[in-house]
Amino acid sequence: MLLSMEKINKIFPGNVVATNNVSLEVRQGEIHCLLGENGAGKTVLMNILYGMYQPDSGQIYYKGQPISIHSPKDSIENRIGMVHQHFMLVETLTVAENIILGQWKPWKNLKEMEKVHERIKNLGEEYGLFVNPNALIRELSVGEQQRVEILKALYRGTDLLILDEPTSVLTPQETVQLLNLLRGLADKGLTIIFITHKFEEVFQVSDRVTVLRDGQLVGTTDTAQTTFGELAKWMVGREVFMDLDRSKSNSKEVVLSVRGLQATDERGLLAVKDVSFDVHANEIVGIAGVSGNGQTELALGLAGLIEIKYDRLELCGQELKKITAKNLDRIGFGHIPEDRQGMGLILPFSVAENFILGEYNSEPYSHYGFLQNRQIINHAQLLVNKFSVRVSNVKEEITNLSGGNQQKVVVARELNRNPNFLLVNQPTRGIDIGATEFVYQQILKQRDAGSAVLLISTDLEEVFKLSDRVLVMFEGQIIGEVPPDREQIFKVGLMMAGKQVEEELA
Amino acid sequence: MQPQLSSGSSGKASHSKINKTSLSRDLRFVWERSKKFLTPLVAIALALGIGAVLMYLNGYSPLRAYSTLWWGAFGNLRNISEVLVKATPLMFTGLAMAVAFRASIWNMGAEGQFFVGAIATTWVGIHLGYLPPWILIPLEMAAGIMAGALAGMLAGYLKVRFNANEVVTTIMINYLIIIGTNYLVTGPMKEVTQDSFPQSALISANAFLPRIVPTTRLNIGFLIAIVLSIIMYLLIFKTSFGYALRATGINPEAARFARMDTKKIALLVMALSGGLAGLGGSIEIAGLAHRLFSNVSPGYGWDGIAVSLLVNNNPLGVMFSGILFGALRSGSEIMQINAGIPSVLNSAIQGIVILSVIAFGAYRFISNKKEGKE
To answer: Where do the H-state alpha helices sit in chain B?
Structure first.
């Protein structure tokens, strides 16, 4: 047994129990998945192991010795490495500079930069982690940056590597590469703890799996001896949906019609090049693609948040010269934005205040310019119940809610207006399976009620599950349309990576 | 012993341990709840403490200094009223800062806006002095508000139209206004009968603000400041405009998402902030100075930043921190006279208060990050 964490307790201010008597045992040389919904305590447990948090009680044994870890420095000395969900890299420095950053005697390393480069190359060859040590971080793709993070840990000397949701930022192809890489590292004797909430990954990569739920240990098992269904039950405490019930869409009424849309990104470069499509009432059109191929700009443009150009745009039968807030309000527009914390919510505001974000200035929430507290609270209470948002008091700050519940607030707010046109961008990024299921059902319900839905997502599973038609976006263009047929998924994955396989798909 | 605060325990083996952790948890909870009020108090205590060390190191007795300072501020009715007199302009500039900071607009121009308010009021008080008080007083205040609001909106316009950073523009406008004031009191607005002092003529007695206590200098300007603190609190926290203002300040992206006109809000906030500072200048002239001179504000605009930051930009808090800084200002003057300790200490304490408030903010930010949930 390489690592054994015994009865770890961690309670955050406000009596939030993050981990409750959780024990974890990890064997030498295995890939051990830590599976659970968001808020289950996976990351907290690993942050305790890495020294970011101190447990309130409990003991950690490592290589047979009881150890106490007060800071990441201690864990690094114990040869424990961690790759965080958000990378800890300096974008303006090179790969090699990042790797030696924070190590003792930087001047020595700087003087011997050639040796550093050589070691990085050797490590790369040994483990199949090829990265140019001279490349600047900001020039690298997300997948490459992740490899730098892993290299950083290996360079320092690591026996136990923790990866926190490493695939959440990767394309399907990059994910396959990463999982192969990890397999290879484990075969060379490295022990890996892999945090995830995706079942497929557990079966693809792990030897054993431990499931956490609501801060408690549900169980640990050999991956080979369990099933998708059993893990799902462990994780959410009940059976999970596999496929969604849905009727066929047969509407001919065009709600949104776009011809020749162009948009530029923050740097002024053309991000959306000449895109045309229609969305009908009672239909979900999915836009699949690797992030950064113009989807963000397309969504912001349709929401009137950035300037766009187009040949022709019709919404609900009206030709619009310009997309303005007034136009959208009149037509009935709902928007579940890509970045809920950055755009969809105001974090220091209460749950109730967030529910009126788009309507703060209209009756009954505002009367002669004064906020009507009772109406706002009642409205929030109503939506909290209707959309089963887990919150003890709607006056609580929304920061205190889990990601899934925050997203439920956004979804509830946008759908409650019963929009004719619903724009949905990355609706389930970073939220747990229970909340995901809920969000899917709500979007489908809105479609069945007659809304036209444009769904933008980098999660192919999601696009295929929800959409009536799938458009694939690559480098600012729509490069193909596919029916949501599961057999097409891998081909679409290739299309998303820019492979021209349209003829095969046609 | 079962601690009263503890929410109970489970399990027997680790009984004492759990109680201990839950006690510290409860204490932490109490701290979470009360730190809103504790932070400014601790900041002040810290500042006074460091001030004491500074005095001691310079050979003064801190005890004597602080006791004179206390007596100077609150020793008798006259001193207390003098504190409130000093607090009045600070409350206006503090409110000006609170409104702007809540919207994340860094109006550094309260000093200049205070001065234009003073200029406008002096002009009205001199040239329309024949009007009866019940017309003249509202009129001169309106002039002060307008002047300050326009100065604020100029920076606001530059911000929304040309994306010019308001910190830079407001500071530049300050220079223009202060140099302009010097020009006015040595040139066009200079008192005719006098040739030695660079100051304007007295405003008409009709323009004087009524005094609350006839034997002191305390005038109704103080009451106006109190009322405005309450109004600004209601505006920021209880109206839909205030909702939009706070939303824009916290997360402009989300504000735009919610179809708020963030440019219009920025302009309005600059006007409001400038108007409040301008009214402060107006009341300083009409209530106290009764004429314009070049240092009619000894830096009230800048002190307003500390007044507002100390209470987390809450207009109700500005009442208290305004009085606190008024007491420091007034008390330290008397301390200088009676104990011979330079009143520069006042600026030092203000500086330390700001630094410790910022330090607390940073600490909270970091500890929130550290204790952040998954």
So the answer is: 15-57, 62-74, 77-102, 110-127, 133-162, 166-186, 220-238, 240-250, 252-257, 262-284, 300-310, 315-339, 344-370
Q: What's the pLDDT band for A414 if we cut at 50, 70, 90? A: very high
B374 to A18: CB separation less than 8 angstroms, yes or no: yes
Whether B1 maps to a domain, the answer reads no
Q: What distance in Å separates residue B250's CA from the closest CA in chain A?
A: 7
Scanning A292-321 for CB atoms below 8 A from B yields 303, 305
Interface of A with B in 379-418 (CB under 8 A): 400, 402
Q: Is the pLDDT of residue A156 over 60?
A: yes
- Whether residue A106 is preceded by a cis peptide bond, meaning omega within 30 degrees of 0, is no
Check A39 against B373: CB less than 8 A apart: yes
Q: How many other CB atoms sit within 10 Å of the CB of residue A72?
A: 17
A268 in contact with B, Cβ within 8 Å: no
Is it the case that residue A173 has pLDDT exceeding 80?
A: no
pLDDT (tens digit per residue) in A266-291: 767 788 999 999 999 999 999 988 76
Q: Which domains does chain A have, with CATH numbers?
A: 3-236 (3.40.50.300), 254-340+421-505 (3.40.50.300)
CA angle A479, A487, A225 (to 5 degrees): 130
What is the structure's pLDDT at B30? 65
| Confidence at residue A506, expressed as pLDDT on a 0 to 100 scale | 39
Query: Cα dist. A12→A55, B29, B370, B373 in Å?
Result: 10, 10, 10, 8
Inter-chain contact B258–A329, Cβ cutoff 8 Å? no
B-chain residues near A406 (CB < 8 A): none
Q: Which residues pair with A24 in a beta bridge?
A: A5
Give the one of B25, B251, B373 whose C-beta lies nearest to A346's C-beta: B251
Q: Touching check for A345 and chain B: CB below 8 Å?
A: yes
B-chain residue closest to A55, CA distance: B21
ipTM of the complex: 0.79
Strands A270-280 and A254-264, how do they pair? antiparallel
How would residue A49 be classed by pLDDT, with cut points 50, 70 and 90? very high
* Closest-CA distance of chain A to residue B240, Å: 5
Mean pLDDT per 10-residue section of chain B, whose length is 374 residues: 35 40 60 69 85 86 87 89 94 96 94 97 94 95 97 95 93 95 89 78 91 89 96 95 94 89 94 97 95 91 89 92 90 83 76 76 59 40
B106 lies in some domain: yes
Residue B140 lies in a domain: yes
Q: What range does the domain containing B120 cover?
A: 88-309
Touching B: A residues 56-115, CB under 8 Å: 56-57
A335 touching B (Cβ < 8 Å): yes
Q: Is B21 in contact with A57 (Cβ distance < 8 A)?
A: yes
- Any domain includes B98: yes
Residue B197 sits at the chain A interface (C-beta within 8 Å): no
Confirm if A164 and A84 have CB atoms less than 8 A apart.
yes
Q: Does residue A14 register a pLDDT over 60?
A: no
Measured between CA atoms, the residue of chain A closest to residue B235 is A370
Whole-angstrom Cα distance, residue A456 to residue A471?
Answer: 10
A254, amino acid identity: V
A197 at B interface, C-beta within 8 A: no
B54 C-beta neighbours (distance < 10 Å), count: 16
Integer Cα distance of A289 and A294 in angstroms: 9
Contact A164, A43 (CB under 8 A): yes
| B370/A370 Cβ within 8 A | no
State how many domains chain B has: 1
Q: Compute the mean pLDDT over every residue in chain A, rounded to the nearest whole number.
A: 85
Of A219, A163, A239, A148, the closest CA to residue A196 belongs to A163
Which tokens go with B146? 């307008």
Q: Between A and B, how many residue pairs show a Cβ–Cβ distance under 8 A? A: 97
